[in-house]
Write a structure and sequence with these properties.
The chain is an alpha+beta fold. It has 5 helices and 13 strands. A hairpin with a 2-residue loop joins β2 and β3.
Length: about 250
């Protein structure tokens, strides 16, 4: 039987005092906590399997609440995400719920928000999605390819990263609709994908991601990517999952 191996890790990094990231892999969620070592889960390839990260907006209260809410809702909706329209509606629903929870939380949650990025793995296809600047990459042996679309303002010449986002789930005093990015790609045994927050991609350029993923698989790849981000200063929360499709 073909299966999907998901190896994941979430860590606050070296600068932030709290981890505002959350992660979902199938029915399993990891919300605003810390894993000391990569965790690997195995799922049969069949029912839609969602693997996603949510990065609570820094500098605004309640980021960990927003990211956990989105992770938990995606975990519940995952088996029903059979097509692009299903994914878009799930993200719209998450956005509405973030705003509703913020309204009920008083000043402490008034502008809470989160980015989200992930993949829905099915027997013959993968749906990559995102709102914000968390990312999804295909990771073939000949080089990583970004499948997500950064919601970021134009960068100045020579500027590789920015902490600003042009859309997120929640994050503003008044309700703002989102336009999710969703793309479909074919899946075959041996295919690998990286889903991560910008705590990984801000300190590490794509050639570093590529080098690690060429050399390692699964939990070792996750560990080496995390170690590289820490060596680069660990400026933000780091959450990532490596997804591998295996022909059993």
């Amino acid at each position: 039987m073909a299966y999907v191996a998901v190896s994941a890790l979430s860590h606050p990094g070296l600068v932030r005092t709290r981890n505002e990231d959350s992660l979902v892999a199938g029915p399993w969620t990891l919300c605003a906590t810390v894993t000391e070592n990569p965790q690997t889960l195995v799922f049969p390839l069949g029912t839609p399997l969602v693997v996603a990260v949510a990065d609570g907006l820094g500098g605004q209260p309640g980021g960990e609440v927003a990211s956990a809410l989105v992770a938990q809702r995606l975990a519940a909706a995952g088996p029903r995400l059979a097509g692009e329209d299903d994914v878009r509606e799930a993200l719209h629903s998450c956005n509405r719920q973030v705003y509703a929870t913020a309204r009920g939380g008083g000043d402490a949650l008034a502008t809470m928000g989160t980015t989200v990025a992930g993949a829905v793995v099915q027997p013959e296809s993968l749906l990559a999605f995102n709102v914000g600047d968390s990312r999804v990459f295909a990771a073939p042996r000949d080089g990583v390819v970004q499948l997500s679309v950064d919601d970021s303002p134009p960068r100045a010449p020579g500027q590789r990263t920015t902490s600003l986002v042009t859309q997120a789930l929640g994050g503003t005093p008044e309700y703002r609709a989102v336009t999710p990015h969703v793309t479909t790609t074919a899946v075959a045994p041996g295919d690998r994908y990286l889903v991560c927050t910008d705590g990984l991609t801000d300190p590490l350029p794509n050639d570093v991601l590529d080098g690690v993923l060429r050399e390692y698989d699964d939990g070792r790849a996750v560990f080496e990517l995390w170690k590289a981000a820490i060596a680069a200063g660990g400026p933000d929360n780091i959450t990532l999952a490596v997804v591998r499709v295996v022909d059993g």
